[in-house]
Amino acid sequence: MKKKMLYFILLPLLLLLAYKFLYSERRHFNLPPGPPSRPFVGHLHLMQPPIHRLLQRYSDKYGPIFSLRFGSRRVVVISSSSLAQESFTGQNDIVLSSRPLQLTAKYVAYNHTTVGTAPYGDHWRNLRRICSNEILSTKRLTNFLHIRKDEIRRMLTRISRDTHSDDGSSFTHIELEPLLSDLTFNNIVRMVTGKRYYGDDVHNEEEAELFKKLVYDIAVYSGANHSADYLPVLKLFGNKFEEEVKAIGKSMDEILQRLLDDCRRDKDGNTMVTHLLSLQQQEPEYYSDVTIKGLMMAMMLAGTETSAVTLEWAMTNLLRYPEVLEKARSEIDEKIGKDRLIDEPDIAVLPYLQNVVSETFRLFPVAPLLIPRTPTEDMKIGGYDVPRDTIVLVNAWAIHRDTELWDEPERFNPDRYDNGCGSEYYTYKLMPFGNGRRICPGAGLGRRIVTLALGSLIQCFDWETVKGEEIDMSESAGLGMRKMDPLRAMCRPRPIMTKLLIYKHFLFSKKHRFNLPPGPPSRPFVGHLHLMKPPIHRLLQRYSNKHGPIFSLRFGSRRVVVITSPSLAQESFTGENDSDSDDGSRFTHIELEPLLSDLTFNNIIRMVTGKRYYGDDVNNKEEAERFKKLVYDIAMYSGANHSADYLPVLKLFGNKFEKEVKALGKSMDDILQRLLDECRREENGNTMVNHLLSLQQQEPEYYTDVIIKGLMMSMMLAGTETSAVTLEWAMTNLLKHPEVLEKARSEIDEKIGKDRMIDEPDVAMLPYLQNIVSETFRLFPVAPFLIPRKTTEDMKIGGYDVPRDTIVLVNAWAIQRDPEFWDEPERFNPDRFSNGCGSEYYAYKLMPFGNGRRICPGAALGRRIVTLALGSLIQCFDWETVKGEEIDMTESPGLGMRKMDPLRAMCRPRPIMGKLQI
Ligand code: HEM
To answer: Reduced to 3 states, what is the DSSP secondary structure of residue 782?
Structure first.
């Protein structure tokens, strides 16, 4: 009670204090207006990407300068050219030349000491001087022109190789984003370190992929809306975000240190780093390793994605505006001709091309909000107070679309720059590189790369949109405004390509010319991995409806080809219970799944080791349960979409998945070794293992313990779940189709009678039972994609190239439901197999056990177990569904297609059970 009273007194007091505090700040500062905010978070909860669009809507409502709160930080947003000019001139420019402290800058950028992140002051001024005099000076840029030219030629060659057709007249489908990104990454990384990271003929693929992923992550983690940066209180909770940023910083530093050490060894190199190392020798205190790594990082972070993304948007617009493409091409053909490739000095005579680039920068600025600034002291903008430490965002994206500055701002119109106004006219209207003292020092280089690469693409190829496809114009979240859906296009080499004869050996060397199967659009870095949500076989079936019976995907860096037709599969695989009720007429509710699974597990494990693991009268219950769990886990972890298997780069992060799999392997080996040792002690046992042990005595080098354990595991993994799951699906279908159950029972009662139990040799005279099993295998293959294969050399399937080391998935699930081969494929109809066609007819249409040389060696055993068990269940019991319950048919994820919801049923013993007295 007393406590409550206290609250009543304290609360108004607190509110009063808070009001006074806020009121005094308001009175003291004349802050820009802004939308209503929430306690604690301020406006953070509203910051859904794309943020530049949201902030443009606020500026329409609150004016060209307004304020927000991101947690405890005040934010001021500027959205007009005149206020940008006011901010970036005179004393204001100096005051506004600092950057706010951000977690990424702390942990990735050496505690805010790099040129892009350092606060305004002597250290930053020095770094800028080094950038403009030692790294990005016109002289040094010209020095590296050969790299830009070489990388552009290599890109053109790659496109040529991918699009080369014999008659030279047809268009080919290509993915542009990876090519553009490789170009700009190589360009900067080569200038900085002398290394080629991407494409053919590269240095260290794993490190290269990791680097690209880190650049991607840093852009995402530096987005303007990361709570942890603005709600310092979150840190008290052991913030995950902060941990992740730290890990990114550590990985990045490792790469940079490695690159730096490599350059140190290679003293004669002509790279930025070797130049900085020579300066280190003169001024070792100033040019420390951290300073050099900071400069490397600034170049490599700020110079790579930015240019690639701009190029992608530029090409997107050329595809959307064919008349612009045409005009740019005419200009190039006229000024450069058709015999030589456009070169950097030519850019000066190609004003329209330059205008295309400017128009791209206007509508698609890579940094739509520039990079945040913060005033080092209180300042005034537009008559309002902007207190020190406020985060200042300039919405360049909104300024670039301001109707007061631009006619029809949404239109991509390069001609608008043909107005005789000089570049100065645009200083505060068009600012893709920022403004003021902290304007991008790489603007010259960025523009050069983009313009030269774009000109080359226009000069060397014809371009068209992919037929029937609208180009998706959505923008990604994060600091850089990427295109969400990577650009694809149809492309055809122009005659000049053959004249150029660049890298001809390379272009026409057969090894590199692949006509890969088509496929859905992919994302940078991850490829299609992010799309792989289970059940994957259904997803892949939808893809095959769209892209054809053979299509390709990328799981990270691994190419995957999926086959979904019997003829292509043929092409790939040829050439080279406790139901005791007192009243026999009552149905009892039972759970079938555990019984079926005990049956098949015991069956195999007894064969292999002589032990009964499950049910009554068992050996070692704990071990048995552990074994079952391991089998389950191994199937889950072997699913086709586990990132760690396909993105080798993830392993560098001390991958959790890999650790877990290792632990699984160890537990499994412990069990196998124990079972093996027990069999060894029991010399007279009649088990598979005893037999293998006797072979071991004859050929000890060949039949090692590891080989025997491997065989045990293969049998025990492949032979247990598979049969249990098939049995469960078979029973599920009998429950759903009582007429099928009835027909199967009549067959058994007629052929076997009601006095003895069905036995294995009987199966031969029970064709309908066999058909039920086939139909179950058809609709519910336990391994819907079989088990992934890998090609050991380049091969051709369906006219397409499948390069070596590609993962090949055969979607048996989809083939077995293909309406071309099966009438009413979704219907469970065992009679479809009584058509007189022999088993050969089905070889490539029905393949629950796989196909080719690696077909399941346990197929016959599996079929026997399933058919005999199913026959026995039909013969001995009546079956019904649980009243009022729909049977859930959902499939589980993982390599084996289990039934998600374990099967339950109502069950009643038939009279035969009494006679059998088993
Ligand atoms: C299309 C290409 C590029 C675009 C659109 C771009 C854009 C930008 C923008 C908007 C800023 C922030 C400027 C501000 O705060 O006002 C910036 C800063 C920066 N950029 Fe670029 N950039 C590009 C290419 C490059 C290249 C090629 C390099 C170097 C190799 C580079 C290095 C930097 C650095 C070091 C900064 C930080 C400057 C500082 O804080 O003092 N950029 N860039």
So the answer is: coil
Nearest protein CA to atom 17 of ligand 1, as residue: 440
Which residue, 395, 446, 371, 327, is CA-closest to 112?
371
| β-strand pairing of 904-909 with 877-880 | antiparallel
Q: Which amino acid would we find at residue 408? A: E
Q: What is the pLDDT of residues 831-855, one digit of tens each?
A: 999 887 777 788 888 888 887 777 7
Which of 35, 73, 33 is closest to 385 using CA atoms? 33
Q: Check pLDDT > 60 for residue 587.
A: yes
Structure token pair of residue 529: 């991995």
- Residue pair 480/367 in contact (Cβ under 8 Å)? The answer is yes
- Residue 56, both tokens: 């443009």
- Please give the pLDDT value at position 617: 59
What SS3 state is found at 597? helix
| Token code pair at residue 337 | 């001709």
What's the predicted TM-score (pTM) here?
0.62
Q: How far is Cα 586 from Cα 580, in angstroms, rounded to an integer?
A: 10
Is residue 611 predicted with pLDDT exceeding 90?
A: no
Supply 689's token pair.
Answer: 């293992």
Chain centroid offset of residue 515 CA = 23
Full 3-state SS string of 343-357: CHHHHHHCHHHHHHH
Averaged pLDDT of the chain: 82
Q: Are 412 and 324 in contact (CB under 8 A)?
A: yes
Q: Could you tell me the two tokens for 874?
A: 């039909």
Q: To test ligand 1's pocket by mutation, which of 186, 222, 440, 449 has the most ligand atoms within 8 angstroms of CB?
A: 440
Which residue in 572, 549, 574, 580 sits closest to 562, CA to CA? 549
- How far apart are the C-alpha atoms of 808 and 855, rounded to whole Å? 15
Binding annotation for heme? 440
Beta strands in 115-263 (DSSP E): 172-175
User: Which comes out higher in pLDDT, residue 233 or 258?
Assistant: 258
Annotated binding site: 440
